[in-house]
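MODEL INPUT / OUTPUT PAIR
PAIR INDEX: 1
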Amino acid sequence: MDRRTAIKWVMVAGAQLPSFLLADPKSAVASPSGYGKDPDLLKAYSAGQLWPLTLTDAQTRTTQVLCDLIIPADAQSPAASAVGVPTFIDEWISAPYPNCVRDRPVIVSGLAWLDTEARRRFAGEFATLPPEQARRICDDICDISRAQKPFATPAQFFARFRDLTALGYYTTPVGLKDLRYVGNEPLASFEGPPPAVLRQVGLA
């Protein structure tokens, strides 16, 4: 099973990890002042219009590289960064809602760890590493159950980042097409559930 196929089945809707920090939280997150008014759902907003964004240019570059390692381009679909997933992650961790506030220090501190580890191993920033070197770092943190003790906390960051990457990607038109999702389309007629389904639930 290739990486794209595997990531399709990542359960992202309710995934929440306990909050943890890789660095001093005071340096990674600011307290929100409140939710404010609900957005107008009929209006299109640009990134950062509803609340200030969190990621710096350097953190955005790291996010782009990591997103594309998780969901790279293939013959059918573009990579995660090509459909705006890094912006989605920035919007998510910048929002004032509780789940987003909990994720903010996790993501920001995790991105900082990637750069620290990249400098330690390869004397360069994570975003500038050749893909094979970046993957070597990710291989040590991509599975919480197998991560060695020094990588236990970064592995939790990677798990949350991977969930957000999948959530951002597979809620775009490109991602829905990749999943072969056929909902929200008008039907000329509806014949009801197939007889086999009705029999299975005892209704036929």
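PAIR INDEX: 2
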Amino acid sequence: MINMVKIVDLTMEIREGMPQHLAHGRSPLYLSGTRQHQMWKECKKPNPYDPSEMVSFQNEQIVICGHMGTHMDACFHADPLSKQTIEQVPIDRGYGTAVWLDVSFRRAPRVAITPEDLEVAQKQSDATIQPDDIVLVYTGWSTILEEDPAKYSSDFMGLSREAGEWLRAKKVKTVGLDTCNIDAFATPSPVHMNFLRPRSLGLRNADYIAIIENLVNINKITTSRFHFVGVPLPFLGSTGSPIRAFAVLD
């Protein structure tokens, strides 16, 4: 018997004009493709299964930032001495057992999530964070994406320095959240430095914690523990990559 599973898509829709962190350049730019249906139709090659139609194809070219939409950071994004660009990130940083913490009770512009907030969220959850877990933090900030995308990008919530330290102490391997920056607004990016530049803490390069930003629909996950999938594309030499993120529920 095949076990039935439920899939929850956690990925932001990719489109021109989508909200972006201000440091990540402009939104995607869709260009005309090298092939279009109308051009192929003029070749007048009948569809072998329906001669009333012509065989045709279309494609497109898309100019994107490596940190566009729902994406994962490589260590080189935050550490100039690191040699880890996105194609070198192990696939298992975007795959494995996961839990989600609901801190949406703090939802407000430019709020810094604290360890106390995470403690409250973990107590309200049925799952305890285990070493090597992937942790998704639901701030609720993603709910303003449609109503006020500019505010989403300019007044985002994020984790405080202490919250990042709390998660590191749990020995997690990846942390994602539903805002455009894992760091709280107007801070010197302590969480990025903690997670992606572990040498600053006297740790090994291998002790980094992967970062995923711009998740959506975390609150639609109906179990506290689940499997997460969200792996980057192997763009050679890139500091980040969009991912297709989703939760797999038994």
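PAIR 2 NOTE: Residues 71-249 form a domain with the Glucose Oxidase; domain 1 fold (CATH 3.50.30.50).
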